[in-house]
Amino acid sequence: MAAMRPGERTPSSGPQSCPATAAGLQTDTRQPGAEIQETLVYMQCCGQEAPNMTESNGHRNIMNMNHQVPVFVPQGRTEGGWTHPSAPQQTTTPTMPSCPVSAPYSFRSPGSVEMDEIMAAMVLTSLSCSPVVQNPRQSQNDPVPGPSSGGGDMECGGGELSDSGSSGYWSWDHGNISPAPSLSVTEMDSSPDEGLHMELEQGVGLHAAKRSKSSFRGAYRCLWPSCGKVLTSSVGMKRHVRVLHLGSGSEQSHREEDFYYTKISCEAPPAPAPTSSPHIPWASCGSPPGPGPGPGLQIPSSTSSSPSGSGSSRPSSAPGSAPGQPSPLSKSAPSSFWQIQTDHLYQVTVSCRSPSPGCWTPPPLTVSNQHSHHNSQVVRGRCRSVSVGEQWLQQNSATSRLTTVTADSPSRSHCSFRKGRGEAKKCRKVYGVERKELWCTACRWKKACQRFPALTSA
DNA sequence: TATGCCGGGTC
DNA sequence: GACCCGGCATA
Questions:
Q1: In what order do the strands lie in the sheet with A261-267?
Q2: Closest CA to A25 of A105, A87, A104
Q3: Which of A146, A257, A279, A382 is deepest in the core (most CB within 10 A)?
């Protein structure tokens, strides 16, 4: 694959399908002499760009990249995702042009080809600053694979420069991930400066790319045995690992950092994670993006350090590596907090009302409503644009259901947790149509019944 | 077909 | 935000 040429890109077959690669290739009409270098470049571009472009589905790409195995990611999920069309755009970004930049080196004598390669690698590395690139390290478990071996330099060398990229621009991220804010504030400090470097190097184009990335949120989690620190900046994380765990030192350690932290990302709404995790609905989150996932997902995270939950579930990566999983971020506690709140809320609601439906009165509801509403916003993330009232209503019913449902597909279905009829006593059923005035407001409005939340007997 | 409730509209 | 309802999914 290394030898792949511009024209060679096969549409469907993944390996080479890296759009970025294609783009980069276009520009190449260089002398044969520089072939080696070019090859290198192509690979690089492929690895780097692809992920960038696919921020949303990045997890997969990243993972793959890690092993340097070009993988074709089915574009099934397009949430925030990219579609072919987008690919072209990317190509236009300065990033690609950068490839050619390395060209000059290629003119060197054959004898210095190696040098060229290295330089090219470095250049690429610097260009690859995108956080996504970092991801590769996710497979900390098997560091051996591609990265270090093939062009070890690239991987790490860029480390310092590159990763920071993400750091500086996360503000919005935090916004989405409510729990995170405090997360890496400290770390953030360090990253920004480096982020600047990146910018300079990458140029506006990348900038744009980043923007597009905006849909991607992630964080870096220290995998060191008892650490588990989470930072939004890879640079910060590296530093953290290097200083606290590896002991600031040789280059060796410099490289190893990568293996001691993993990137955890919370997909924004799209929260794909089609692969391994059923959460990210929201992702998101999303998200909290972790939102959707609420209960189910959070459990693992809530215990934070106990990787058991997410970690175990994760295929290759380390504990909590779960890409796109909100939990990591939420580790800080919020997640659990939500969980509790939600449950609590639910319980309260139930306990207060179910006992005497007849006595129940709307007013109380309103009170709890507000609370629940609050929760709902946080937990559920954004499934759809919902009126406040709806949100909490959904929350009430949804939360309970969520526990069993465990967040399904991020797709639309994710938002609609309909429980089968008869799972709960709905006002209509209890009071009958004739006594509609006894119905809870939600029922009257044809909303999810709040008085008899679906307790899914199952 | 009845029911539950989502999604969206109106006030 | 409260209220209402069309329309879909499900039993």
A1: A230-231, A216-222, A261-267
A2: A87
A3: A279
Beta carbon of A380 within 7 Å of strand B? no
Q: Which nucleotides of strand C lie within 7 A of protein CB?
A: 1-7, 9-11
Structure confidence by residue, pLDDT tens digits, A336-387: 333 333 333 333 333 333 333 333 333 333 333 333 333 333 333 333 333 3
Run of H or E including A197: helix A185-213
DSSP track, A117-166: HHHHHHHHHHHTTSHHHHGGGG-TT--IIIIIHHHHHHHHHHHHHHHHHH
Closest residue to B3 (CA to C1') is: A421
Task: Say if residues A265 and A323 touch (Cβ distance below 8 Å).
Answer: yes
* Secondary structure in 3-state letters for A201-260: HHHHHHHHHHHHHCCEEEEEEECCCCCCCEECCHHHHHHHHHHHHHCCCCHHHHHHHHHH
Distance A419 CA to C9 C1' (A): 10
Q: What's the DSSP call for residue A419?
A: P
Between helices A388-405 and A334-353, what is the axis angle to 10°? 100
Phi, psi at residue A284, to the nearest 5°? 85, -30
Contacts of A71 (CB under 8 A, 6+ apart): A14, A15, A60, A61, A64
A24-79 pLDDT per residue, tens: 333 333 333 333 333 333 333 333 333 333 333 333 333 333 333 333 333 333 33
Q: What angle do CA A186, A188, A191 make, to 5 degrees?
A: 130
Tokens of A260: 């001691």
Locate A326 and state its tokens. 């909100």
Q: CA-to-CA distance for A304 and A179, rounded, in angstroms? A: 13
Handedness of CA A67, A68, A70, A76 (dihedral sign): positive
Helices (H) and strands (E) in chain A, counts: 22, 4
CA dihedral A56, A57, A59, A62 (to 10 degrees): -100
A285 backbone dihedrals φ, ψ, rounded to 5°: 170, -165
Protein CA at A408 to nucleotide C1' at C11, angstroms? 21
